[in-house]
Amino acid sequence: MATPTLSRTATVPLAIVATFTVFYVLWVGKPLLVPLAIAVLIWYMINALANLYTRVIFRKSANWMALTLALLTIAVGAVVVVEIIQNNIADVKQAAPGYKADLDQWLVRIYDMLGIKSLPTLSQFMASVDIGPIVASFAGALTGILGDLALIVVYVGFLLFEQKTFSNKLANMFPDPAKRKQVEELIDNIQLQIQTYIRIKTLVSVFTGLVGYIVLTLVGVDFASFWAFAIFLLNYIPIVGSAVATIFPALLTLIQFDTFAPFLIVGIGLTSAQFAVGNVIEPKLMGSSLNLSPLVVVLSLV
């Protein structure tokens, strides 16, 4: 008896429905799937660090020691990040009155250039703003971030716990040794590709942060180390992260100095670094390491 097959006219509508269903499920499940994706990324980073410590320090099978050291590294890194942010927030609070005065002067200059005499200053404008909804929105966003952080920690914990028994479950799922070997090779290849991507992304992010630090330090921009660290972190976010990492230091430069020259130097310097990394260096490294065309890498990142 012949197996019934779907005609072309029936296959196309089913494919469209399936596509929309997948996107709908992804959109509805975003609150759970986005933390899961971040957790998987952190899980890969922990395992990559553990493998590195095993090769460099222990030089033999010491999985639990290497994994513990990797977890401690991630934890110390998180504490350092929080400490850097807290210290810079305190410094910004101290420097805020000076920035406000500089911004008022810039507003006066702009009003004079435009021939405007009666527009409010920054202080008058801020006094008329109702900050209640702003504070409520910020509190809601902060609560959401903390909730996602707790969910990410739970996901990472389960992934680390389950990885010890993953090989046994794989053996039960694929009793045929030949098929199991194919699946294991496929999983190992996927892990290697992801770890390679993370390693290259970290390398180019460090390079971008160093270039940003050099440019900001030479110009004399306040909090150059903090902005360099922010550039390093934001570089992990394609397109949007690079734009934010360029705009905010440039705006601070515009407020801090009385002339446009430092603003132009910082803007051009950071933009050039981001362009070179995002469109030349990173695609070249990705293409060479992952055996992909640089054009394919650029299109995939977009």
Q: Tell me how many strands there are.
A: 0
DSSP strand (E) fraction?
A: under 5%
How far apart are the termini? 49 Å
Rg over CA atoms, rounded to whole Å, is 25 Å
Low-pLDDT stretches are none
| Helix/sheet category | mainly alpha
Helix content: over 70%
The number of helical elements comes to: 11
Summarize the helix and strand pattern as letters: HHHHHHHHHHH
Q: How would you sum up the global shape? A: globular
| Chain-averaged pLDDT | 75
Largest sheet geometry? none
List its salient traits.
302 residues, mainly alpha, 85% helix, 0% strand, globular
Structure in a nutshell:
The protein is mainly α and 302 residues long.
Provide structural commentary.
The protein has 302 residues and is mainly alpha-helical. It has a domain at 176-302. The protein has eleven helices and no strands. The longest helix has 52 residues, at 63-114. The protein is globular, with a radius of gyration of 25 Å. The mean pLDDT is 75.
Topology:
Layout: H1 8-28, H2 30-58, H3 63-114, H4 122-127, H5 132-162, H6 166-173, H7 177-219, H8 224-234, H9 240-256, H10 261-290, H11 294-301
